[in-house]
Design goal:
Elements (H helix, E strand, L loop, with lengths): L1 H42 L18 E8 L5 E11 L7 E7 L4 E8 L8 H11 L3 E6 L3 E8 L4 E10 L2 E10 L3 H14 L3
Length: about 200
C-alpha cells in the first residue's frame, strides 16, 4: 500500500511536470509563431491587386540611388527616382529596386561560392536558350544575356547572369513596353555599370 501511494505521487508529479512542459512549449510556440508572422508581414512587399505592381505604401521601402556593392561583391549603380524594396530570397542575397513612375523593376541576385546549387548556371542557361519569349540572346565563357517580351508583349525583360569563382550573380530588369522610352536607356546604363 505504501509503495502504491508513493507510485501514485510519482505519477502525479510526472504528469504535472509533463503538463508544465507542454504548457511552456505551447506558449513558446505561440510566441514564436507570432514573431514569425510579424517578421513575414514586415518583409512582405504589398502589391496592387489590379496590376501586381509594388505598392508605394510599403513601409519597408526606402529611397535608393547611387553606387551599391552587394554582399558577394557585385557593384552596380541605381539611378535617381528608385526605391529599394525589402525582398529576401531563401538563399543568397537579393536587392530589388522599383521606379513607381516608370514601373521599372531592377533585381540583383548573388549566391556566394559554396552555396550555389549544383548545375544552377547550366540549368538557367538551358532554360534561356529554349525560352520562346527571348528575342535576343548572347553568351560568353561564363555569362549570358537575354531579353525579350512577356505578358503578350506588354512587358520587356533583360537579364544577365554570370558564374565565376566569386559566385553566381545575375540581374534582371522588367518594365512595360509602353514605357520603353524610359526603360531602354536605364537598362543600357545599368548593364554598362554593373560589375560582377
Amino acid at each position: 500500500m505504501k509503495n502504491n501511494i508513493h507510485m501514485q505521487k510519482n505519477l502525479l508529479a510526472f504528469a504535472a511536470a509533463l503538463l508544465l512542459v507542454l504548457f511552456l512549449t505551447a506558449c513558446q510556440a505561440e510566441k514564436t509563431d507570432h514573431t514569425v508572422s510579424q517578421v513575414a508581414e514586415s518583409a512582405a512587399v504589398e502589391t496592387d491587386p489590379d496590376d501586381g505592381t509594388p505598392s508605394v505604401s510599403n513601409q519597408n521601402q526606402q529611397a535608393a540611388s547611387g553606387k551599391f556593392t552587394g554582399a558577394a561583391g557585385t557593384e552596380f549603380v541605381i539611378p535617381e527616382g528608385f526605391i529599394q524594396l525589402d525582398e529576401s530570397p531563401s538563399i543568397g542575397y537579393q536587392y530589388t529596386f522599383w521606379h513607381p513612375d516608370y514601373e521599372i523593376r531592377i533585381v540583383v541576385y548573388e549566391i556566394a561560392p559554396g552555396s550555389i546549387p549544383i548545375g544552377a548556371y547550366e540549368t538557367d542557361l538551358n532554360i534561356a536558350t529554349r525560352n520562346p519569349d527571348v528575342t535576343y540572346f548572347n553568351k560568353g565563357e561564363n555569362w549570358f544575356v537575354q531579353s525579350g517580351y512577356t505578358n503578350n508583349g506588354e512587358e520587356i525583360f533583360y537579364s544577365k547572369e554570370s558564374s565565376s569563382d566569386s559566385g553566381l550573380k545575375t540581374f534582371w530588369i522588367t518594365y512595360p513596353t509602353a514605357k520603353r522610352e524610359f526603360g531602354d536607356p536605364i537598362t543600357a546604363d545599368f548593364e554598362k555599370n554593373c560589375r560582377f
